[in-house]
Amino acid sequence: MDFKNLTVVNHPLIKHKLTIMRNKNTGPKEFRELLNEITLLLTYEATRNLPTIDVDVDTPIQTTTGQMVEDKKITIVPILRAGLGMMDGILSLVPNASIGFLGIYRDPETLKPVEYYLKFPPFTENHYVFIVDPMLATGFSIKYAIKKVKEFGVKNIIVMSLLAAPEGVKNVEEEHPDVKIFTAAMDEKLNDHAYIIPGLGDAGDRLFRTK
Fold first, then answer.
1. Which candidate, 135, 180, 172, 190, places its Cα nearest to that of 7?
2. What is the pTM of this model?
3. FRET pair for 113, CA 20 to 30 Å: which of 104, 171, 187, 195?
């Protein structure tokens, strides 16, 4: 499918690391480390068009003008709980970013998101908000997160995921055509239980060894 707002970050290192993550025998320590590393690579691409401001800087030779990102106008919103696994990867590149937390679980019958926790920092209209969740499956949780962030007037929203399914990307794009999506891989489809296939299982369970 041709998705207007989707970028699959097609990099050999990402493919290599993701292949190890897919392996059912990869343990939680290595799984966490690999997710952090892939998030770093995704962040490099997802932040490519961030605006910069001119600043004067004194080099050892003379004063010159450089450019800096206003990272205090960046907020990361990990969707609990699996999104926490991507948070440090982004913070390693934009350490002054704010963090907002959104707790959502998927109702097993309807597959719709149910909110159980929300704590956002103050937003301004020109904030850049990165919503992160390893699995963009049905897209319902991501759509819900986008809606909650937009309620604060934010217009610059970027979604980052490890894996995406066509059904989920289509679902998000139809309702939020202004939101960019960056992912490490577009998988084949969803199965009858709305899991991404071939996928890598439940990212939260593998991160935190809860199964």
1. 180
2. 0.92
3. 187
